[in-house]
Amino acid sequence: MKWLRNLGPGFLVTAAFIGPGTVTTASKAGAEFGFALVWAVVFSVFATIVLQEMCARLGLVTGQGLGESIRTMFQNPLGRGLTAALVIAAIAFGNAAFETGNIVGASGGLESLSGLDQRVWTIVVGAGAFVLLACGAYKTLERVLTLLVVVMSVVFVLTAAIAGLEFESLLAGLVPTVPAGSLLTIVALIGTTVVPYNLFLHASAVREKWPASVPIDEALTAARRDAAVSISAGGLITLAIVATAASTFFGASTTFRTLGQMADQLDPLFGSAARYFFASGLLAAGLTSAITAPLAAAYATAGVLGWERDLRSWKLRCVWAAIVVAGTVLAWLSTSPVAAILFAQAANGVLLPFVAVFLLAVMNRRSLLGEHTNGPVANLLGVVVVLTATGFGMFQVLKAVGAD
């Protein structure tokens, strides 16, 4: 497992977004719209690289996380309080929704393997995540589960290759289109890839990988390469899932009602064993993310409120416990696992602009970053990402409330 310890924070970002949400959303995109939403996957990967590079630069130059940096933007108590409330609300709601999808994915995998009702497994997974976080045993388990997620990802790539990629359709899908009924899926594709809590995690993780003793230019070069390669690999995996689902289901009027139905896309490689492999991978991906999301919420809250970043403190324990409990309850109440996971990713897509705007504001503070503030190109790319995500998120919200 030594190689897992040597991977950079960019891989952690990728491992966090390659979870049940990505598998479900990308499968739905391919099954219902073929290759038409390939452009949304490419945009999501581009947006992730742009925003995560900013977070890495922020962490390496300032030694602060995104939460701490946002806190320093306002000097008066009112401004600081309102900002903290907005960021915490976005993180809490987004992570609770994300946790719901994670627990649904993990419990769905267990249901497929055992045949027991998913609601039973929902309680087991939620309680398991809580216990692992409380006793700190998640660190070793997370390495094993991450390895399983990597294996599942490789399998999707191999399956896509065996099924035969339709390169003409793939290239045609690079042209942005919004097929009827695809808006929620587009927002979900963005939300499952550009995960808001990863922006907080990355800024903190780079300093652990490249401490102050490493020359800043060397650290920045390594962090950028790490992020670009790792996130691009994650994008390739997402595209492979879209391709396998498109090859297997598109044109067959398939509607996913259970997570087990998605396993059919792995038949070319595993045959009758596809169901069991898919369920195991979904369990690993869900449980890994179910541990990571509450931790990220606790760290982000600590940064914004100026708390000590000690997971043994009762304050941080209360934050991650609230996320786990909320996610478990919402997962148990869900009547449609696929719909619950899709909604969780869409919720993150809607909330993303709030966090991204704060990130852009921080990255333009010369008093904080000096010569490493955003240049014109970085700002332009950041604004394009924010406006695009905001536009699709707003359209989805308006559609949800019945506005024309």
How is this structure best summarized?
This protein is mainly alpha-helical and 404 residues long. It is built from 18 helices and no strands.
CATH topology name: Amino acid/polyamine transporter I
Please outline the major beta sheet: none
Order of helices and strands: HHHHHHHHHHHHHHHHHH
The CATH architecture can be named as Up-down Bundle
The tally of domains stands at 1
- The chain-level mean pLDDT equals 82
The parts where pLDDT drops under 50 for at least 5 residues are none
What percent strand? under 5%
Oligomer type: single chain
The CATH fourth-level homologous superfamily: Amino acid/polyamine transporter I
Total helices: the number is 18
Give keywords.
globular; Amino acid/polyamine transporter I; 0% strand; 404 residues; 18 helices; single chain; mainly alpha
Describe this structure in words.
The protein is mostly helical and 404 residues long. It has one domain (2-400): Up-down Bundle (Amino acid/polyamine transporter I). Helices cover 79% and strands 0% of the residues. The protein has 18 helices and no strands. It has helices at residues 2-6, 9-17, 20-33, 38-62, 66-71, 77-114, 118-135, 138-163, 167-172, 183-193, 196-209, 216-249, 267-270, 274-305, 314-333, 337-363, 366-369, 376-400. α3 (20-33) runs antiparallel to α10 (183-193) and α6 (77-114) packs antiparallel against α16 (337-363). The termini are far apart.
